[in-house]
Amino acid sequence: MGNVTVIGAQWGDEGKGKIVDWLASRADMVVRFQGGHNAGHTLVVGDKVYKLSLLPSGIVTGTPSVIGNGVVLDPWALKAEVEKLRGQGVRIEPDVLMIAETCPLILPIHRDLDAMREDASGAGKIGTTRRGIGPAYEDKVGRRAIRVCDLAHLGELDPQLDRLCAHHDALRAGFNEPPVDRERLKRDLAEIADFVLSFARPVWRDLDEAKQRGRRILFEGAQGVLLDVDHGTYPFVTSSNTVAGTTGSGTGMGPSAAGFVLGIVKAYTTRVGSGPFPTELDDETGQRLGERGHEFGTVTGRKRRCGWFDAVLVRQSAAVSGVTGIALTKIDVLDGFATVKICTGYRIGDQTLDYFPAHAADQARAVPVYEEMEGWSGTTAGARSWADLPAQAIKYVRRIEELIRCPVALVSTSPERDDTILVRDPFAS
Ligand code: GDP
Ligand code: IMO
Ligand code: MG
């Protein structure tokens, strides 16, 4: 029995939260390793709906959950989410939630900067979640970050604040904004410190201990491979590495910990925010996908852009992230379509490509080459076994496997936790 790493294989919102929640009961620990509260996961358990952003999805099943050092942590967002979930009856105490002492903090100045930049960018904006994710990662790499462990040393924070504020004040001046209100920042940090510190630990030790004891770890990725800062549709990406390889650096567990890499793949494609999207549909079909799939962002409420399944992009994601098998989600959304299309390549001028080119100008010119398949009139919604799927839906799944060169391990057929078909147990592989 090994570990499992769940990652999104498209532009996020593939249904990672539902699958992590389903797998969590088989895991001993659930661990986030990158991103922050830009993520938004909806979990449906019976008549209860849970919306998570920063907390690992394992928290709902009471599985010990870890926020690793690769995550950027907004203390106030953490408190609000913990309180919201406690209000829904979820138990969140230091024995089930552990936070790495080395997580960099997202501060109000990061949120300000994210918004200022987006507002100043006009049509060129990235369409970020405005949560301060990019600026917080910049400060981490720039060695200016305030980290969780600093909250226990607030009396010694001044030299760090000097560096941080000197940097931000210069940027803020460029936007005609006043300097950082340093005293207020110190007050706010002092107020929130004890709450965050109550969950803070050297989690690398807990994870090492779990490894020594042969415990099963479920790594929970946020966003998706096409939003990866190296491998995604740069610059329309998030500011972290979303690929499975980040599990090692984002937790302190080393490169061999990832185990079975389960790529979560939606049976069609969606994207929220700006950037290239070759199979996007601006027509009635796109509208229908959005309505049937309830494609509105969990975090920002923005309408998600929708289009046909892009096998070229998913094959590329699977390759760069070392995907072992996929969970195909939301196939029920395609129920009732007379025909369905899959993108199998791109035409750029007189060239045909079987991968997505790196340069934005080439990406913008890429015209999808489609393969059309018959749809199915029966329903996949709520199916819990392979035998419940219409024959034509099975053909669709098999064709996807062939095109992306990866086997299907799970199929998800509704938002509900148990409407899931197990084809191959990732933990048993
Ligand atoms: P995540 O960010 O990858 O966790 O995905 P989100 O939670 O943002 O978006 C996925 C949405 O689809 C959520 O509202 C889920 O409840 C829902 N969902 C997940 N799996 C399925 C499925 O198989 N069928 C349908 N119809 N909805 C699903
Ligand atoms: P989950 O985990 C979909 C997108 C934003 C924007 C870009 C950069 O729910 O799949 P950021 O705020 O990260 O600097 O924004 O990334 N984005 C997501 N899109 N799902 C997400 O998370 C996302 N997190 C960020 O819309 O285009
Ligand atoms: Mg989401």
From TrEMBL:
Active site location: 13 (proton acceptor), 41 (proton donor), 140
UniProt-recorded Gene Ontology molecular function terms: adenylosuccinate synthase activity; GTP binding; magnesium ion binding
Catalytic reaction annotation: IMP + L-aspartate + GTP = N(6)-(1,2-dicarboxyethyl)-AMP + GDP + phosphate + 2 H(+)
Family: Belongs to the adenylosuccinate synthetase family.
Quaternary state and interactors: Homodimer.
Function, in words: Plays an important role in the de novo pathway of purine nucleotide biosynthesis. Catalyzes the first committed step in the biosynthesis of AMP from IMP.
Full protein name: Adenylosuccinate synthetase
The organism of origin for this protein: Sphingomonas rhizophila
